[in-house]
Amino acid sequence: MSNVQCPTCEKQTPIPSLRAAGRSVAISCVLSVFFLLFPLLSSAGAGTKWNALPDYLNGGIVIYGDTRSGHSTHRDLVQGITHVKPAAVFHTGDLVANGNREDEWKVFSDITSGLRSTTAFYPALGNHEKESPLFFDRFGLPDNKGWYSVDVDGIHFIVLDTNVD
Protein backbone atom coordinates (compact mmCIF):
# COMPACT_ATOMS: atom_id res chain seq x y z
CA MET A 1 0.00 0.00 0.00
CA SER A 2 1.17 3.47 -0.74
CA ASN A 3 -0.35 6.65 0.63
CA VAL A 4 -1.71 9.50 -1.45
CA GLN A 5 -2.32 12.92 0.05
CA CYS A 6 -5.64 14.59 -0.66
CA PRO A 7 -4.89 17.98 -2.26
CA THR A 8 -7.68 19.66 -0.27
CA CYS A 9 -7.65 18.26 3.27
CA GLU A 10 -4.10 16.81 3.20
CA LYS A 11 -5.39 13.51 4.64
CA GLN A 12 -3.19 10.53 3.77
CA THR A 13 -5.20 7.76 2.11
CA PRO A 14 -3.85 4.28 1.37
CA ILE A 15 -4.10 3.27 -2.28
CA PRO A 16 -3.36 -0.37 -3.18
CA SER A 17 -0.51 -0.87 -5.61
CA LEU A 18 0.99 -3.73 -7.55
CA ARG A 19 4.18 -4.41 -9.43
CA ALA A 20 3.77 -4.52 -13.18
CA ALA A 21 6.44 -4.39 -15.85
CA GLY A 22 9.07 -3.75 -13.18
CA ARG A 23 7.40 -0.73 -11.64
CA SER A 24 4.78 0.08 -9.07
CA VAL A 25 1.34 0.95 -10.41
CA ALA A 26 -1.46 2.43 -8.31
CA ILE A 27 -4.77 0.67 -8.68
CA SER A 28 -7.60 3.15 -9.06
CA CYS A 29 -11.22 2.32 -8.45
CA VAL A 30 -14.29 4.45 -8.83
CA LEU A 31 -14.07 5.64 -5.22
CA SER A 32 -10.39 6.50 -5.35
CA VAL A 33 -10.84 8.40 -8.61
CA PHE A 34 -13.75 10.25 -7.00
CA PHE A 35 -11.68 10.92 -3.87
CA LEU A 36 -8.72 12.23 -5.85
CA LEU A 37 -10.59 14.32 -8.40
CA PHE A 38 -13.72 15.52 -6.61
CA PRO A 39 -11.95 17.94 -4.23
CA LEU A 40 -10.20 19.47 -7.24
CA LEU A 41 -13.39 19.68 -9.27
CA SER A 42 -15.66 20.89 -6.50
CA SER A 43 -13.40 23.84 -5.75
CA ALA A 44 -12.75 24.59 -9.42
CA GLY A 45 -14.31 27.67 -10.86
CA ALA A 46 -14.11 29.55 -14.09
CA GLY A 47 -10.53 29.99 -15.18
CA THR A 48 -9.24 27.02 -13.19
CA LYS A 49 -5.58 26.25 -13.97
CA TRP A 50 -5.60 22.48 -14.44
CA ASN A 51 -1.86 22.28 -15.20
CA ALA A 52 -1.13 22.53 -11.45
CA LEU A 53 -2.46 19.07 -10.58
CA PRO A 54 -0.32 16.92 -8.27
CA ASP A 55 2.19 14.65 -10.04
CA TYR A 56 0.60 11.47 -8.68
CA LEU A 57 -2.51 12.11 -10.79
CA ASN A 58 -0.66 12.37 -14.11
CA GLY A 59 -0.28 9.48 -16.52
CA GLY A 60 -2.28 6.95 -14.51
CA ILE A 61 -5.24 4.81 -15.41
CA VAL A 62 -8.69 6.21 -14.64
CA ILE A 63 -11.70 3.98 -13.97
CA TYR A 64 -15.14 5.53 -13.56
CA GLY A 65 -18.74 4.81 -14.47
CA ASP A 66 -22.49 5.28 -14.15
CA THR A 67 -22.76 8.54 -16.06
CA ARG A 68 -26.38 8.06 -17.16
CA SER A 69 -27.44 11.18 -15.23
CA GLY A 70 -25.77 14.17 -13.62
CA HIS A 71 -24.39 15.49 -16.89
CA SER A 72 -22.86 18.66 -15.45
CA THR A 73 -20.94 16.58 -12.89
CA HIS A 74 -19.87 14.20 -15.66
CA ARG A 75 -18.68 17.16 -17.74
CA ASP A 76 -16.63 18.49 -14.79
CA LEU A 77 -15.17 15.06 -14.11
CA VAL A 78 -14.16 14.59 -17.76
CA GLN A 79 -12.55 18.04 -17.77
CA GLY A 80 -10.45 17.03 -14.77
CA ILE A 81 -9.58 13.65 -16.27
CA THR A 82 -8.55 15.28 -19.57
CA HIS A 83 -6.09 17.55 -17.81
CA VAL A 84 -4.63 14.65 -15.85
CA LYS A 85 -3.62 13.06 -19.19
CA PRO A 86 -4.11 9.42 -18.16
CA ALA A 87 -2.66 6.52 -20.13
CA ALA A 88 -6.18 5.09 -20.44
CA VAL A 89 -9.74 5.58 -19.23
CA PHE A 90 -12.06 2.67 -18.43
CA HIS A 91 -15.80 3.26 -18.08
CA THR A 92 -17.55 0.61 -15.97
CA GLY A 93 -20.93 0.85 -17.72
CA ASP A 94 -24.23 2.72 -17.63
CA LEU A 95 -22.80 5.34 -19.94
CA VAL A 96 -26.36 6.45 -20.77
CA ALA A 97 -29.79 5.89 -19.22
CA ASN A 98 -31.21 4.14 -22.29
CA GLY A 99 -28.80 2.71 -24.83
CA ASN A 100 -31.48 2.68 -27.54
CA ARG A 101 -31.88 6.48 -27.53
CA GLU A 102 -29.68 8.40 -29.94
CA ASP A 103 -30.26 11.68 -28.06
CA GLU A 104 -28.67 10.21 -24.92
CA TRP A 105 -25.64 9.02 -26.87
CA LYS A 106 -25.30 12.52 -28.32
CA VAL A 107 -25.10 13.99 -24.79
CA PHE A 108 -22.52 11.35 -23.80
CA SER A 109 -20.49 12.06 -26.96
CA ASP A 110 -20.68 15.82 -26.45
CA ILE A 111 -19.24 15.39 -22.94
CA THR A 112 -16.55 12.81 -23.74
CA SER A 113 -15.50 13.41 -27.36
CA GLY A 114 -12.49 15.57 -26.44
CA LEU A 115 -11.25 13.02 -23.92
CA ARG A 116 -11.84 10.10 -26.28
CA SER A 117 -9.97 11.87 -29.10
CA THR A 118 -6.77 12.10 -27.03
CA THR A 119 -6.95 9.13 -24.65
CA ALA A 120 -7.56 5.40 -25.03
CA PHE A 121 -11.15 4.86 -23.83
CA TYR A 122 -12.43 1.39 -22.91
CA PRO A 123 -16.16 1.08 -22.12
CA ALA A 124 -17.98 -1.80 -20.46
CA LEU A 125 -21.60 -2.58 -21.14
CA GLY A 126 -23.96 -1.76 -18.30
CA ASN A 127 -27.56 -2.85 -18.03
CA HIS A 128 -28.70 0.59 -19.26
CA GLU A 129 -26.91 0.17 -22.60
CA LYS A 130 -29.37 -2.68 -23.33
CA GLU A 131 -26.91 -4.40 -25.70
CA SER A 132 -27.84 -1.62 -28.14
CA PRO A 133 -26.28 -1.43 -31.60
CA LEU A 134 -25.76 2.27 -30.82
CA PHE A 135 -23.20 1.24 -28.18
CA PHE A 136 -21.33 -1.12 -30.50
CA ASP A 137 -21.40 1.34 -33.42
CA ARG A 138 -19.64 3.98 -31.29
CA PHE A 139 -16.87 1.93 -29.78
CA GLY A 140 -15.87 -0.72 -32.34
CA LEU A 141 -15.14 -3.42 -29.78
CA PRO A 142 -13.27 -6.54 -30.92
CA ASP A 143 -15.63 -8.90 -32.77
CA ASN A 144 -18.48 -6.57 -31.74
CA LYS A 145 -18.72 -8.42 -28.42
CA GLY A 146 -19.52 -6.91 -25.04
CA TRP A 147 -16.37 -8.37 -23.52
CA TYR A 148 -12.73 -7.96 -24.44
CA SER A 149 -9.28 -7.58 -22.98
CA VAL A 150 -6.58 -5.00 -23.47
CA ASP A 151 -3.04 -4.35 -22.25
CA VAL A 152 -2.24 -0.88 -20.89
CA ASP A 153 1.18 -0.03 -19.47
CA GLY A 154 2.05 -3.69 -18.89
CA ILE A 155 -1.24 -4.49 -17.13
CA HIS A 156 -3.75 -6.88 -18.69
CA PHE A 157 -7.35 -5.68 -18.23
CA ILE A 158 -10.38 -7.86 -18.87
CA VAL A 159 -13.64 -6.01 -19.54
CA LEU A 160 -16.72 -8.19 -19.02
CA ASP A 161 -20.38 -7.94 -19.93
CA THR A 162 -22.13 -9.00 -16.72
CA ASN A 163 -25.55 -8.80 -18.38
CA VAL A 164 -25.07 -12.11 -20.20
CA ASP A 165 -26.71 -15.22 -18.74
Features:
4 helices; alpha/beta; 23% strand; Purple Acid Phosphatase, chain A, domain 2; two-stranded antiparallel sheet; three-stranded parallel sheet
Walk me through the structure.
With about 160 residues, this protein is α/β, with parallel strands linked by helices. The protein has a domain at about 30-40 and about 55-160: Metallo-dependent phosphatases (Purple Acid Phosphatase, chain A, domain 2, 4-Layer Sandwich), CATH 3.60.21.10. Helix content is about 30%, strand content about 25%. The chain has four helices and nine strands. The strands form four sheets. A three-stranded parallel sheet has the order 5-6-7. The chain has a two-stranded antiparallel sheet with strand order 1-2. β8 and β9 form a beta hairpin. α1 (about 30-40) packs across α2 and α2 runs parallel beside α3 (about 100-120). The model is unreliable at about 15-55 (pLDDT under 50).
Q: Which structural category fits the helices and strands?
A: alpha/beta
Spell the H/E element sequence.
EEEEHEHEHEHEE
Strand content: 15-25%
Query: Please, what is the oligomeric state?
Result: single chain
Largest sheet: 3 strands, parallel
Please give the CATH class of the domain at 31-41 and 56-159. Alpha Beta
- Provide the residue-averaged pLDDT: 75
CATH architecture descriptor text of the domain at 31-41 and 56-159: 4-Layer Sandwich
From the spread of the alpha carbons, the general shape counts as globular
CATH superfamily of the domain at 31-41 and 56-159: Metallo-dependent phosphatases
Distance between the termini: 36 Å
| Residues in helix, % | 25-40%
**CATH topology group of the domain at 31-41 and 56-159:** Purple Acid Phosphatase, chain A, domain 2
Number of strands: 9
Trace the largest sheet across and list its strands: 5-6-7
